[in-house]
Batch of 4 targets.
Target 1
Amino acid sequence: MNSHLMMASIADFIGIAVLLVGLFALMSSHYMRAPLKSIAEYIRKAKRMQNSIPPGSFGLPLIGESMQFISSYRSSVCPDTFIAERRLRFGRIFTTHLFGKPTVISLDAEVNRFILNSDGRLFMPDYPTSLKQLWGKWAILMLEGSFHKRIHGVVATLFKSDDLKDHLLRHIEDFIQQAMESWNTNSTIYLEEEAKKISFQVTAKVLVGLDPGATTVALRTEFHKFIAGVVSVPINLPGTTFYSSLQSRARMVQMIKGIIEEREGNARHTDREQKHVVKVHLDVLGVLLEERRLMNSKEREEGGEREEVTTTEAMPLDAITDNIVSFFFPAEDSVAMLMSLAVKYVSECPRALLQLREENLNFVDKYKGEKMNSRHYLMQLPFTHCVLNETLRLGNIVKGVIRKALVDVHVKGFLIPKGWAVFPFFRGVHLDEAIYEDADQFNPWRWQEKVALSHYTPFGGGPRYCAGLDIARLEAAVFLHHLVTRYEWELGERDTLTHFPFVKLAKRLPINIIHKQNCKNQSFPTLYNPTLQAIHVMYARV
Ligand code: HEM
């Protein structure tokens, strides 16, 4: 009964809107000559629309159902109340009104895949103006069309390359070693804090080639102030969080520009005739600078003389700084969350922890003294990756993505009207009992059986799939490897998860270190790395 009332309210809303448009058309036509036929056509169209828009409710005027959505995902007890209630009343595809827009939420894996794969044709990302101000108009999330394709391609190619992953592995292990040095038996550490420290260092390395030091610390301080603005009221006045966030963003941009200037000062530039070597740094800044050089020189060639008197650039410097700034977020926050949640889940599931430890100790034995590379960590630790898959499924670090319909879109018998927002809600699919048995339980063994990967989208899909997924998996696998082979711990104070706006552990996951492994008998896989060798020797002397 309730659902019918809600459906009626949407239908009324559309009916009245279409009637008003019809009336306006009639009134504005010269001498009201518009044929009555066209009004009938409008009414027929309204009827057709009201029949095919997914059922649901719009909630209150202007704010719609945003408050219910937010309070549901702020709760650590029953975060999915909002979704569960509506799924029961309306099914897996329903209409609501979120953050100022009529929105279709989809908990249907097939529809979600369709939306992700139709990016750029039927849908495009749709972020509020305040977020555009924060990320910058050139950030990958804001880009469309061929420029998006180009930036995505350059970054994805870099992140897929074994050279980059192997180069990064040395640093990941180094940063983990340094962090772990301070964790001693009988001490309590805040795992989320430690994971964030490590992943920020990895991020600074992979994005701009920075080693830990004063600049990384300064960059991290500004990044934290910057990120606070993402969830603030967007009022750009001195004293507001939003204002301070924009100021920090500007300082991050200055630091990145400083690194660029330093690189360009040192660079030996290309000159094909003189056969100079191009030095492309193995990081995101390096490949974006190279891409910019290529695009701008092509632009100049094509532009001929006219180009010399204009300042047009195919790829301005802002395109580099906006992207670097925006990559800091997934690279620091999401990866650290993956590591922290994996530790929480295995700590609560002793059988999984035991198997994880066994696999990783065997791995140490098997590759004793061998030169390790990223493929070892990505391919030779199957159970570790089952743990990570399950953590991503259950933890839903990214709940879903928001898109806008570019045209009227028909899918599974429903209409998503042009201009409406659409929210493929991955979390709703990942926690669907019809797909995953005991969906709310941590069960890494399910990944040892045949699981339909088409339902599984923790890293999105289509043209905007996560370019950094291998980096995220590598970092998390190496972290788990070192943690379980060297430490025994127990969870400290009980911690809870909240989900809005981002997944967070309320207490930053305190863990008590019970035992630090005597590393004498443990052969670290990357012994040839001089820093690690020094640390290994140090441990061996303990
Ligand atoms: C556990 C960690 C991570 C998760 C869960 C995650 C999740 C996602 C998701 C769901 C998307 C799709 C966004 C959309 O469709 O609008 C995405 C895109 C992306 N992610 Fe990640 N990500 C993670 C780590 C990383 C890392 C480490 C990087 C690299 C620094 C990265 C870089 C990117 C990039 C470049 C895109 C493409 C955006 C676009 O083309 O519009 N991500 N990620």
Note: Residues 1-16, 18-31, 305-311, 519-542 have pLDDT under 50 and may be disordered.
Target 2
Amino acid sequence: MELSINNVTKQFKDKKAVNDISFSMGNGVYGLLGVNGAGKTTLMRMLCTLTTPDCGTITWDGKDIFKMGASYRQILGYLPQDFGYYPYLTIYDYMMYIASIKGIRPAVAKKRTKELLKQVGLSDQKKQKMRNLSGGMVRRVGIAQAMLNDPKILILDEPTAGLDPNERIRFRNLISELAEERLVLLSTHIVSDVEFIANKIVLMKEGQCCFEGTSDEVIASMDKKVYCFVVPREQVDHYMRNYLVVNVKTFGSNAELRILSDHELVKGACVEEATLEDAFLNYFGERAGESHA
Ligand SMILES: Nc1ncnc2c1ncn2[C@@H]1O[C@H](COP(=O)(O)OP(=O)(O)OP(=O)(O)O)[C@@H](O)[C@H]1O
């Protein structure tokens, strides 16, 4: 099973939202990591056949997904960033409604809804109206509805947006569980969402894929080292302006800096082991005063 993106480009007026992207995915979790506006949603919408590429192809096991029609939609589950939910429906009624839109027979829909609500931990709340749910619960309903047709491909656009730390952990565990027998692609700009669960991470910047690999490979691909050292507090601003500063910890009149650099900035600075967060800053970070352009 392979979903393959081949030289795909999508342009809106003078903006190339996705610019000549190619990569392939099999089963497992794929984390699409990038800052706002990188082109993640546009790419995902093309993978869901909601937007057509200007050029390039997307294939599922060698077949063009735009020519597969209903047979592709049958194997696809999608949770958009702003999924339109119905505040006055109960969770159960909402699931049954979405199942009917997806053409799932009522008997199958009932069984599947029961299983899925159990899996996302919402069985006891199934009679609650959607408007009374927390953000985390709504997102879990979102995943459950995307899973109704037991899809082989599950696409989740920023599924953890607005979740608190407990909900994020719960979500990550759920996504890992779901990816055992399918392809799950999730977009985020939060490193910890994918650091431990993604089999592969795709870094997306300005419409292009700037790196693809495991978490360890992304870290190893960094062209800078991580240095830690202490400076007087008044020098912090200088480092913030001129270097990629991951962290500043102030104590008294001093500050400990964690900085990405290709050379030792201060004699005796400790070289620290890099994390995925450091790699994210390496690819996407800005020095203080720089802006997105
Ligand atoms: N329908 C559209 N018309 C015009 N420009 C668009 C359209 N959709 C996206 N864009 C532009 O394409 C670029 C990529 O947008 P996209 O939503 O794909 O990025 P993203 O990585 O998903 O960002 P976010 O995390 O903020 O959702 C942005 O500059 C956006 O303004």
Note: The pocket of adenosine-5'-triphosphate is lined by residues 12, 15, 17, 34, 36-42 (CB under 6 Å).
Target 3
Amino acid sequence: MASGTTAGPRPVRIEVSGLTKTFGTVRAVSDLGFTVEPGSVTGFLGPNGAGKTTTLRMVLGLITPDAGSATFDGVPYAALREPVRTVGAVLETAFHPARSGRDHLRVYSRAAGIPVARADEVLERVGLTTAGRRRAGGYSLGMRQRLALATALLGDPPVLVLDEPANGLDPEGILWLRGFLRHLAHDEGRTVLVSSHLLSEMEQTADRVVIVGAGRLVRQGSITELRSGAQGAGTVLVRSPEADRLVAVLSGAGLAATRGDDGLVTVEGATPADVGARAFAGQVELHELRAESTGLEELYFRLTAGQEQFSAGAAAPGATAVTTEGASR
Ligand SMILES: Nc1ncnc2c1ncn2[C@@H]1O[C@H](COP(=O)(O)OP(=O)(O)OP(=O)(O)O)[C@@H](O)[C@H]1O
């Protein structure tokens, strides 16, 4: 490792639970819970305005939540003994324009009690050794992103929290970032939480994703699980010769069931086991019972089509012609 130590950083797990934040009348984050494991890249994915930045700011103790908590191995950010050596963050990329990237890192190191020699190590790690001697004011957005990442790495933290770090990078930069984040997690055992509004980017970078819409958790799981549609509660399709009675039984049990024109009953936020058990208890005959196979693309497509209106527990709005790539910040 660049820090000169041979052992990797100690593994630290992030746990977010019941996180809630309202700004005026806007519920930016609502009862959000998820975990981020060491040794893997977790993508925090959601359309613009889904509450990603607000969540990350709460995780980093920059905003006080109305309810809930975010902890690093059980300790909130504000109570960490050595925050800079525990969590490295990239939220905004603002630097003193007249200062070189290297000087920025040296000033930051001194303030954080880190040996200044570390500045050159992290510059090298992000490929800014030469550019590091030039004024940061002349940096491209991609170079500023690299410098921000270098700043986050100064304390050799086991945890990295990055808000849209791929923003402004050219294709080559994106490829580099992807490999770098995976290396930090897979080879060095760090816990990497990285937000993005682009599914394609997260699919190629992350091992797991936490998907949010309208401040709520929509899904979390490994890319493989989510791609296969084998994720817990979702949309269940069920057919019965007694469709109306089935809807009444399921609704009576608190499930969101609706009957379509074709007689097929759709149940949202349930598993086939939930639906089967309720139908059995209500003595309703079933002819077909299956989970709708919503792949990751379709799920995210619906989410971005619905944008802020999407609500996790409710029926997803009908998909319209919106591509996940089309979203921009
Ligand atoms: N300080 C604030 N005051 C008022 N509303 C806010 C504030 N910060 C965020 N919001 C609102 O909270 C919601 C979530 O915003 P947030 O920036 O967290 O979303 P995001 O997923 O990061 O989106 P983006 O990628 O567009 O930044 C939005 O409706 C936003 O307008």
Note: The mean pLDDT is 86.
Target 4
Amino acid sequence: MEQVLIKKVEKTFENKEKKQSFTVFDDINLTVNPGEFLSLLGPSGCGKSTLLNIIAGLDQATNGEVYVGEKLIKTPGSDRGVVFQEAALMPWMSVIENVMFALRKKMKKEEAKEHAKKYLKLVHLSKFMNSYPHELSGGMKQRVSIARALAMDPKILLMDEPFGALDEQTRSMLHREVQYIWEETKKTIVFVTHNIREAIMLSDRIVLMGTRPGGIRKIYDVTIPRPRVITSPEFVKLEEDIMSILGGEIEKVMREEMGDDFNSKKASLLYGTNNNMGDNI
Ligand SMILES: Nc1ncnc2c1ncn2[C@@H]1O[C@H](COP(=O)(O)OP(=O)(O)OP(=O)(O)O)[C@@H](O)[C@H]1O
């Protein structure tokens, strides 16, 4: 268990050709507590992935610092495991070989095999360890990619919309799976999502990010006892609270993207809380 400290982080992208720069956010301050499950939630383009990539060391902050424990983060490291929306498994390797590949520099082959088996068991894929990626469903591939990240025994697990491409049923199953993994391994998890219900279902805290100017709008403590039920009154209440702020953020993005074509009635029809997919922003 380790804490992540994000101190005055700014990210500006330079477009050298157009001689323009674009600041995604300019002053993010946040502490992710050891063992915490924290979600970054916000409209498209607010910088969730950018912030996660900076924590991962895959991208650098323009200003400010990120620490994992005492360590200043500049590059990727085995203390942080990353899971992306696409599992990116090597198609010519079996499931167990994919997990072992990540361990090749860390341990000998036999030890790596035992280690990989342990993590495949944790994600309930022991039966499929000799299968190949094309033989697996999308949800199973994502479980392999979670096992691969966990096998490195990172202190922090960073997840960027890991279930974004999956159907609703598979997503619910993986919510249970990831909660089980979190409880078993006691990892600190930072989880990026568009989906309000997903954030409420999984998180200890939800960091709601906004755009133009980008930054943290509000932080919610989710105190609803687990396992959580989406129809419970406290769940619905929190969903409405979050949507009331997010609605304004989404409208801002749409206004900017659509210019004169923007029509707030159209926006509320598309993104209102009453439709079934209102949780998915
Ligand atoms: N390499 C880059 N160069 C220039 N601009 C970038 C680059 N990467 C991201 N951006 C811009 O930074 C902003 C934040 O992007 P980011 O992907 O972090 O947002 P997000 O909140 O994760 O969005 P989404 O939910 O749609 O993935 C966007 O406006 C994006 O266009």
Note: Residues 13, 22, 24, 42, 44-50, 194 surround adenosine-5'-triphosphate (CB under 6 Å).
